[in-house]
Design goal:
- By secondary structure, this protein is an alpha/beta fold.
- The chain has one domain.
- 35% of the residues lie in helices and 16% in strands.
- The chain is built from four helices and three strands; from the N terminus they run H-E-H-H-E-H-E.
- A three-stranded parallel beta sheet has the order 1-2-3, covered by helices on one side.
């Protein structure tokens, strides 16, 4: 379905996709994505820039608070993406584009 969105409506300039609040999956899967799933969504919708959102602000789920960022960095490297397309902003940081 997301590939269809990318094909029909994309490409998208900026994709702001949640990367946190995914553990335990039995409870959180319906409303949250893992960092790896978020980068697959980015690819499926033909995004140009990725911004990971919804992580590290509140300690509401069981994953360690910094884990989403670490997993996103690892998956970005695995996919050959770099910081010019995958934005890993610190809290309060802004970026012009």
């Amino acid at each position: 379905m997301l590939r269809e969105i990318g094909t029909r409506l994309g490409p998208f300039d900026l994709t702001a996709i949640p990367i946190g609040g995914y553990w335990p999956p039995a409870i959180m899967k319906a409303a949250h994505t893992t960092p790896e799933e978020a980068l697959q969504i980015f690819a499926d919708v033909l995004g140009s820039y990725f911004l990971g959102i919804h992580w590290g602000t509140f300690d509401l789920t069981e994953e360690p608070v910094q884990e989403p960022l670490q997993r996103l960095e690892a998956e970005s490297r695995r996919r050959g993406l770099d910081s010019s397309t995958v934005w890993l902003l610190k809290h309060g940081e802004s970026r012009s584009w």
